[in-house]
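USER:
Try writing one entry.

ASSISTANT:
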Amino acid sequence: MTREEAEALLKRHVKNERMLDHSYASEAVLRALARRLGRDEEKWGLAGLLHDIDIEAVGGDLSRHGSEAGRILVQEGLDPEIVDAVKMHNETACGKPRQTEFQHALAAGETLTGFIVATALVYPDKKVAGVKVKSVTKRMKEKAFAASVNRDTIRECEKIGLSLDEFVEISLGAMRGIADRLGL
């Protein structure tokens, strides 16, 4: 599946602009991670783009989120590794822990995008361009800040061989590259 076909598929299933922006941010981060780790950028990018394809269909039900995405992606003929990573980004629905580098990268990357957006939104200009690595890592220690974001999932970056600082730096760079699309 081409990137354009994947975006069209995503837009058939996701109408909420914020969710689309999250998908684009996740795609950018996963592509950057793939480049850094020497992995397949197209494969990782598609996983980032499509990981929440089922969120509206399941009404945000985390007990089903990911599983329904897997069904959609299998039906569309996507690479089984992409399907697996997408299903496993929400290990709650799978009932088993993430194990592969790809699974950890997708879960950590897509989770960090939301945290970076939350950090940018407390800046006066609300732009990702001004967000510093240290600002993100400092806020990770503040439990009340973006309280719904699972810090342990973000820290899975260490399971793919990246320190938190390097992971944040890569992710910030990726999101800055599409800041106009994100409105940040």
Observations:
- The chain is about 60% helix and 0% strand.
- The mean pLDDT is 95.
